[in-house]
Task: inverse folding
């Protein structure tokens, strides 16, 4: 199946400008063109764009993405270096996940603390509302 640039943008969640930018900097090979000269994207292009989006979301720098893309275009003989790039990036992602988990622990602690404060406050308010029961 083929897609116009607008359809590719919609399906990938990237903007048309981002698709053109990725093509310009070498992350995406220039797509085929239709008889009118308009870009035509394939399912394989969309799969590649999805992978690039994952790399970007995990914080891979454009520089590394470009290196990976250029290696990919050179074929199977670059598999070792491509794997190495992904292994290195995975280590960075795991480190960020650990940092985020630590931050989440702090947030959970603070939320639990506020829950306790609110429970204590509600108990004090209930007790203050019925002082005659407390003295009886």
Result:
């Amino acid at each position: 199946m083929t897609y116009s640039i607008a359809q590719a943008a919609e399906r990938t969640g990237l903007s048309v400008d981002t698709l053109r930018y990725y093509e310009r900097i070498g992350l995406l090979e220039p797509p085929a063109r239709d008889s009118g000269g308009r870009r035509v994207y394939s399912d394989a292009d969309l799969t590649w764009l999805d992978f690039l989006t994952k790399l970007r979301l995990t914080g891979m720098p454009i520089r590394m993405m470009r290196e990976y893309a250029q290696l990919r275009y050179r074929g199977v003989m670059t598999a070792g270096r491509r794997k190495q790039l992904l292994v290195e990036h995975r280590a960075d992602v795991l480190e960020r996940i650990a940092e985020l988990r630590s931050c989440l622990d702090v947030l959970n602690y603070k939320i639990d603390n506020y829950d306790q404060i609110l429970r204590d406050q509600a108990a004090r308010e209930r007790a203050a509302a019925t002082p005659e029961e407390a003295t009886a």
Summary: The domain at 2-129 is CATH 1.10.1660.10 (Multidrug-efflux Transporter Regulator; Chain: A; Domain 2).
